Amino acid sequence: MTFKKDFLWGGAVAANQCEGAYNEDGKGLSTQDVAPRGIVGPITEEPTDDNMKLIGIDFYHRYKEDVKLFAEMGFKTFRTSIAWSRIFPNGDDVTPNEKGLQFYDDLFDECLKYGIEPLVTISHYETPLALAKNYDGWVNRKLIGFFENYVTTIFERYKNKVKYWLTFNEINSVLNQPYMSGGIFTDKSKLTKQDLYQAIHHELVASAMAVKIGHKIMPNAKVGCMILGVPNYPLTPNPDDVLEAMKQDRENLYFADVHVRGAYPKYMDGYFKENDIKIIMEPGDEEILKNTVDFISFSYYVSSCATADPEKLKTAEGNLFSGVPNPYLEASAWGWQIDPKGLRYMLNLLYDRYQKPLFIVENGLGAIDELVTDENGNKTVIDDYRIKYLNDHLVQVGKAIEDGVDVMGYTTWGCIDLVSASTAELRKRYGFIYVDRNDDGTGTLDRYKKKSFNWYKEVISTNGKSLV
Ligand code: BG6
Q1: Ligand 1 center to residue 240 CA distance, Å?
Q2: Alpha carbon distance 241, 252 (integer Å)
């Protein structure tokens, strides 16, 4: 059997993109509550009605209905995140908000009721706004202490319910999206590389500290890192392009290197020197970094090409990183290049480098769906394009497993439609479940099964044998 018996099939979401209820039950504001246009738009003074995330898909109130649908598809795991500002409304509070804690107790209980293992991201693109405004997010070393308090609280609370944890979502994205990823309030244009790499150092220390605390409080739990996975191909066989691709790969792999090997890789010395970066370390930091992760998780949507030729340097649309378009690949409606084989390549690249279990915790197609009525009078979406995308990627996961890679599981992104992270719109849909909500705020919020719902159900029940 290609996929192991206990392969963790499932789906993934993030709190800020689906929960809504942005100011209910004591939740504090997060960086997302004042970013109505995602990464492209302004940061507003106050939450504004045009911010789709304030209501999201109302998962906060409808999670029981949604988890039931996940169970019907046969999910073995469900990845979600905890909204930090539900637990510590300002981030630096001393005592947690009990109602926030209770919400996740209820959600995890609901999952466990159906035998679905919660897979929990501790920080997914939402920092308590007060930490961004008053401390400038992860640029400030004090965030490590606040994070320590937060993780200790949630580990103690959910130690009997959650076995799989991820520290920072796509931790490498802070390089390109300092506000969304690192809660850094200072405008990107004013940040120096020194600021950014110092902020990264703080996150890396905090992540390793979470691993340490996690292992102590929950000896049977597994704590992983989460990387935005983008393999870089040389645009041509020109050795300069090959070296450029290696350089760009290292910009991302450096994050995994620290998490898995427990120390800064040697090649970063050169980079820091070249860019006049001096990481300020406190005594004990190097020791803490030695708390390495149990597994590596990553998102995979696109691959990219690298060139050393400035003439050819035009960028393709991409996840949060964008590189030179690959002439052999087609793209989604949002311009993201589709490359199933790149996933096999990425899995092999990571496994060759680390020999650690890998978990694909995001992959999927953002597309415009049309709700239609089928012959039985049921509303649905005939999303053959999504089925094809997921099938083709999963076939490559199977091939990577045959190559010898240890893959723990696969969770599709946005298993239920949700608000996009980069553009904050709902018309970009990823789900097996359609949510009736439109970007103008209209819609009933009712849920409908798409064609891909039954397709995925079969993939899970046959443990991948139905893939073609
Ligand atoms: C990843 C993020 O970068 O990509 C998710 O972890 C995000 O939060 C996903 O939603 C897809 O991106 P987008 O912009 O289409 O929502």
Answers
A1: 31
A2: 17
* 276 Cα to the center of ligand 1, angstroms: 32
The pTM of this model reads 0.97
Strand-pair partners of 416: 433
Catalytic-labelled residue, pool 362, 370, 375, 425? 362
Asked whether residue 467 is domain-assigned, the answer is: no
Residue 466 inside a domain? The answer is no
Are the C-beta atoms of residues 186 and 175 closer than 8 Å to each other?
Answer: no
Angle at which helices 142-158 and 193-217 pack, to 10 degrees?
30
List the alpha helices (DSSP H) in 23-182: 59-73, 84-87, 98-113, 129-135, 142-158, 178-182
Q: What is the CA radius of gyration of the chain?
A: 21
CATH number of the domain that residue 340 is part of: 3.20.20.80
**pLDDT tens sequence across 55-94:** 999 999 999 999 999 999 999 999 999 999 999 999 999 9
* 403-461 per-position pLDDT tens digit: 999 999 999 999 999 999 999 999 999 999 999 999 999 999 999 999 999 999 999 99
Tokens of 239: 């050795």
Domain count of the chain?
A: 1
Q: Nearest C-alpha to atom 5 of ligand 1 is from which residue?
A: 421
